[in-house]
């Protein structure tokens, strides 16, 4: 003992010596009355050499009831290191309860971060009420801190169980908390805030028969966020608690549950119950998953009821919610009739702009959409087949948007072929005073059924940089298979495109710009029908207005046409007029890695010449077309990073004015260096002379590239399959390639592009017009890999041709493969190549 003291004294001397440079601070005298039942502990909150100096030097000082001590610190800034804990036990069970204002006792404490703890023991037969002074409190989530570092933490303690009622900052709307039995309340004060009062008083109240009642007073437009006790942990089993909201009768309150989870109930159901003034059915009972009541006039209360939980797997009942108080909206009693009873397969969502990606700040005035006067939310989805009466609780309806979607499906052409569907926004939607953001038509069909859209009275304009859409709405069209997506383009009314035929599943999105579309008088005229299979990815039928310049562009700009995709335009030229066609660039601007890319132009008249250009050739010069004509663009797989984008324009003029016509062609956008192009040309030409190949039209299952291993399989039904393969352009187009002007008759023995009924078929089938991407990156020049993909569904050829396979049996027989033999070898090779 003596040795210990000596050691302590030595240590104290050493410490004092180490602190000798620090000026000695004023000393503190704390005197605690026995009856106050208060204990003060001053201790190190952070490691430091600074010490408390009394008779001895120490790092912690505990002052008990009845003590009278004087001390100082060995350093000048003890607030940096020391904290104070002041604990007062109040026993309301065995003695009279000291009700009234709660003081910060004792006086004269050093200014340190302090935590005052009031531990009140009370009988569960009576209620205790904590009443906060006028700045009131605001509940914060666990982990959140208060801006002024002043916080209250309130625990309820019944018997030995502690329930954390919550942590609160000053400056909120929680005015009173009533509890049953004991309470442990702590007040944390930072050293720099000279607070003189605790900010609350304690009173005794009649038993509340529940865990607690939290009262909030919301005097003006505001919002409050509250949490269930113990949040985010579980609300006690089978407990009941109530929140009371005192709201002036001229304001409206709406409740939103932002975060909740349910426990596993064995008996009873977890629920919330509302007492709403004027409601004929109090209490109104809701599930936590329900949309909670909105637009409540004046004061109301809400109770949370737990259940008997499954002992093995109790789960967690918790709730974080918000109450928003605002003035009644001018329009609150205006209901809008939305009649969707005659619509089919449609959903209409009315929502705040940016929903659901942007959650509005809690402080923003909210906009609510109501299904009935008290069922309101930030978003409301209506489905077809019903009539709705909706209203808006919103100061500014321009914050709201409508997003709608309609599905139209056709799985058997016999049921849909004759039908014409009108793709227009129903009046039920255009009549609402809400801006239409987007209306999507989802057109779903099987592989063999394609989609045709027409705009008979308005006709469509393609949105291109040279000719931008400036209408109040536009259509964005996307065609998709489960694997690929092709952005057909953006179109608006008032152009020259009469018809677009497309493959795959199509999504047409009407998007609006500005306020224009609110007016239901804006004309819409888009018709859709399902048509049998078409040969190209897209076919545009264009009938230009006289004198207007029509700009047209390949789909998927600026990312370029996908590999092997073929697109056609049919441009009608009235008898008395001529059309001038000009490409925007003089080259396609790509080099092919696999296959070849072509531009074919052909007038629709018997014996017309076909103009064919390959990717390594110059595009045709501006030219006059005397008859309606086809333009076809088909892509190869370009070398890395190169994209095929072609643009051209067409103008019409009277025939007699031929000389005055301005003809121009718009440019192809591609990325290719001159060197790359040259190299490619050299290689291709070389190969052309060495390895002549034959074009094949085939509607058998397997078509073979002469001299190349592998086979390909169709992605469609055998009997409907139209597989077409041109093996080497050098042979098919050989004679054409020698022509400098490219205007040669295309009559080559195997290759007969226009033998169908005139007008039904675009010009020359492109050599490689696959339906879907071929997943391959091999270079046919370097390595004669199989050209065809083995995956059954990976591609289909674009051309519909039949009855020609017999002519080229040679090519076919040479390497015919049993389609049932798995092409494992190829697959492995693919893997290696990629
Ligand atoms: C002081 O606290 C103790 C322990 O909680 C208690 O037994 C005693 O009654 C209290 N005294 C007063 C005056 O509250
Ligand atoms: C506490 O002690 C100081 C002297 O150390 C004395 O002056 C003071 O009166 C005492 N206070 C009480 C309440 O006993
Ligand atoms: C005192 O509280 C403040 C925050 O209010 C904190 O930054 C500081 O570290 C605390 N000091 C000690 C010694 O705990
Ligand atoms: C509370 O805990 C104490 C000891 O920790 C125990 O003696 C007492 O029985 C407990 N009370 C109840 C009601 O569980
Ligand atoms: C209380 O909060 C409001 C806004 O929430 C703020 O404007 C005001 O300054 C705060 N008052 C205090 C004393 O912190
Ligand atoms: C309240 O209870 C929680 C958890 O049981 C505990 O962390 C916290 O310190 C308690 N607060 C008071 C003031 O006792
Ligand atoms: C809901 O609570 C969980 C658990 O505390 C948390 O991870 C999640 O972020 C919360 N969500 C919201 C929207 O507050
Ligand atoms: C809730 O409000 C109703 C009606 O104002 C009232 O009768 C009831 O006592 C309240 N309940 C609580 C727990 O405050
Ligand atoms: C809406 O109707 C209710 C009941 O009919 C009425 O009390 C309220 O004043 C009306 N609100 C407005 C803004 O006219
Ligand atoms: C309704 O739409 C779905 C897809 O949204 C589609 O599969 C279905 O065929 C459509 N029904 C009708 C009758 O068009
Ligand atoms: C839209 O553009 C066309 C030409 O493309 C022009 O004639 C028309 O005036 C424009 N309309 C508006 C509203 O700008
Ligand atoms: C279109 O979508 C439907 C349903 O998702 C699917 O069954 C069908 O194969 C798709 N059609 C095409 C051509 O991808």
Helical residues, percent? under 10%
Bound molecules: 2-acetamido-2-deoxy-beta-D-glucopyranose
For the biggest sheet, the summary is:
10 strands, mixed
Mean pLDDT: 77
* Number of E strands: 59
Strand order of the largest sheet: 35-43-37-41-44-46-52-49-50-59
Given helix and strand content, the structural type is mainly beta
Tally of helical runs = 8
Terminal CA distance reads 82 Å
How large a portion of the residues is in β-strands, by DSSP E? 35-45%
Shape descriptor reads: elongated
- CA gyration radius, whole angstroms: 41 Å
Which regions have little confidence, pLDDT < 50, spanning 5+ residues? 14-24, 657-760, 765-834
User: Quaternary status of these chains?
Assistant: single chain
InterPro entries: CDCP1, CDCP1_CUB_3rd_6th, CUB_CDCP1_1st, CUB_CDCP1_2nd_5th, CUB_CDCP1_4th, Sperma_CUB_dom_sf
Region (Disordered): 693-716, 755-834
Protein name: CUB domain containing protein 1
Domain CDCP1 second and fifth CUB: 101-204, 436-515
Q: In words, what does this structure look like?
A:
This is CUB domain containing protein 1. The protein is mainly beta and 834 residues long. Among the domains are: 20-170 and 187-199, no CATH class; 535-655, Jelly Rolls (Sandwich); 662-690; 692-703 and 712-753 and 791-830, no CATH class. The protein is 8% helix and 40% strand. It is built from eight helices and 59 strands. The strands form eleven sheets. A ten-stranded mixed sheet has the order 35-43-37-41-44-46-52-49-50-59. A nine-stranded mixed sheet has the order 8-16-10-14-17-19-25-22-23, with no helix packed on it. The chain has an eight-stranded mixed sheet with strand order 5-2-7-9-15-12-13-11, with no helix packed on it. The longest helix is centred in the N-terminal third of the chain and has 17 residues, at 2-18. It is elongated. The structure holds 2-acetamido-2-deoxy-beta-D-glucopyranose (12 copies).
């Amino acid at each position: 003992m003596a040795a210990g003291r000596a050691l302590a004294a030595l240590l104290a001397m050493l410490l004092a010596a180490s602190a000798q440079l620090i000026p000695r601070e004023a000393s503190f005298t704390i005197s605690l009355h026995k009856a106050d039942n208060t204990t003060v502990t001053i201790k190190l909150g952070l490691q430091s050499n600074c010490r408390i100096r009394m008779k001895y030097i120490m790092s912690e000082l505990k002052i008990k009831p009845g003590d009278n001590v004087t001390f100082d610190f060995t350093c000048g800034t003890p607030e940096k290191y020391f904290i104070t804990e002041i604990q007062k036990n109040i026993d309301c069970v065995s003695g009279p309860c000291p009700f009234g204002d709660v003081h910060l006792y004792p006086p004269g404490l050093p200014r340190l971060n302090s935590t005052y703890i009031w531990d009140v023991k009370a009988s569960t037969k009576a209620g205790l009420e904590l009443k906060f002074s006028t700045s009131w409190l605001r509940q914060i989530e666990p982990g959140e801190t208060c801006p002024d570092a002043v916080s209250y933490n309130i625990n309820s303690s019944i018997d030995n169980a502690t329930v954390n009622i919550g942590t609160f900052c000053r400056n909120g709307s929680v005015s009173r908390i009533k509890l049953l039995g004991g309470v442990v309340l702590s007040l944390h004060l930072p050293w720099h805030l000279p607070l003189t009062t605790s900010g609350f008083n304690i009173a005794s109240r009649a038993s509340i028969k529940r865990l607690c009642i939290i009262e909030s007073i919301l005097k003006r437009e505001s919002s409050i966020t509250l949490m269930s006790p113990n949040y985010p942990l579980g609300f006690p089993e089978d407990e009941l608690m109530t929140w009371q909201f005192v709201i002036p009768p001229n304001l409206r309150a709406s409740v939103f549950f932002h975060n909740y989870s349910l426990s596993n109930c064995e008996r009873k159901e977890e629920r919330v119950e509302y007492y709403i003034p004027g409601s004929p059915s109090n209490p109104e009972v809701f599930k936590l998953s329900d949309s909670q009541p909105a637009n409540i006039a004046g004061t109301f209360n809400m109770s949370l009821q737990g259940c008997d939980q499954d002992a093995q797997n109790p789960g967690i009942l918790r709730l974080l919610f918000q109450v928003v108080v605002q003035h009644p909206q001018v329009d609150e009693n205006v209901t809008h009739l939305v009649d969707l009873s005659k619509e089919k397969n449609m959903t209409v969502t009315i929502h705040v702009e940016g929903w659901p990606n942007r959650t509005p700040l809690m402080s923003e005035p909210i906009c609510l959409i109501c299904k009935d006067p008290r069922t309101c939310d930030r978003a409301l989805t209506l489905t077809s087949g019903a009539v709705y009466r909706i209203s808006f609780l919103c100061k500014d309806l321009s914050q709201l948007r409508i997003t709608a979607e309609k599905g139209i499906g056709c799985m058997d052409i016999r049921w849909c072929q004759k039908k014409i569907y009108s793709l227009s926004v129903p009046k039920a939607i255009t009549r609402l005073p809400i801006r239409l953001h987007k209306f999507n038509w989802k057109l779903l069909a099987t592989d063999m059924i394609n989609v045709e859209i027409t705009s008979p009275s308005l006709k469509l304009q393609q949105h291109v940089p040279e000719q931008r859409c400036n209408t109040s709405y536009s259509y964005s069209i996307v065609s998709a298979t489960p694997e690929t997506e092709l952005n057909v383009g953006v179109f608006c009314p008032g152009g020259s495109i009469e018809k677009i035929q497309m493959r795959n599943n199509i999504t047409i999105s009407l998007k609006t710009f500005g306020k224009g579309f609110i007016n239901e008088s804006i004309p819409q005229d888009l018709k859709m029908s399902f048509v049998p299979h078409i040969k190209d990815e897209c076919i545009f039928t264009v009938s230009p207005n006289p004198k207007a310049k029509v700009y047209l562009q390949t789909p998927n700009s600026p990312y370029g046409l996908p590999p092997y995709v073929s697109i056609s335009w049919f441009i009608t030229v009235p008898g008395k007029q001529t059309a001038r066609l000009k490409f925007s660039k003089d080259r396609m601007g790509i080099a092919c890695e696999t296959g070849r890319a072509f531009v074919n132009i052909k007038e629709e008249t018997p014996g017309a010449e076909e103009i064919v250009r390959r990717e390594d050739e110059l595009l045709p010069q501006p030219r006059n077309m005397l008859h309606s004509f086809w333009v076809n663009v088909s892509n190869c797989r370009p070398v890395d990073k190169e994209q095929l984008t072609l643009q051209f324009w067409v103008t019409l003029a009277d025939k007699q004015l031929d000389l005055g016509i301005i003809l121009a062609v718009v440019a192809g956008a591609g990325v290719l260096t001159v060197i790359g192009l040259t190299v490619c040309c050299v290689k291709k030409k070389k190969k052309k002379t060495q390895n002549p190949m034959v074009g094949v039209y085939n509607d058998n299952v397997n078509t073979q590239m002469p001299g190349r291993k592998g086979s390909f399989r169709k992605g469609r039904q055998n009997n409907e399959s139209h597989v077409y393969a041109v093996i080497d352009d050098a042979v098919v187009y050989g004679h054409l390639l020698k022509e400098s002007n490219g205007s040669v008759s295309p009559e080559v023995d195997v290759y007969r592009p226009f033998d169908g009924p005139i007008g039904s078929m675009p010009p020359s089938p492109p050599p490689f017009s696959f339906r879907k991407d071929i997943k391959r990156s091999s270079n046919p020049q370097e390595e004669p890999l199989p050209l065809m993909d083995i995956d059954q569904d990976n591609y289909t050829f674009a051309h519909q041709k039949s009855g020609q396979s017999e002519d080229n049996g040679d090519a076919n027989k040479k390497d015919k493969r049993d389609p049932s033999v798995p092409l494992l070898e190829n697959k492995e090779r693919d893997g290696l190549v990629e």
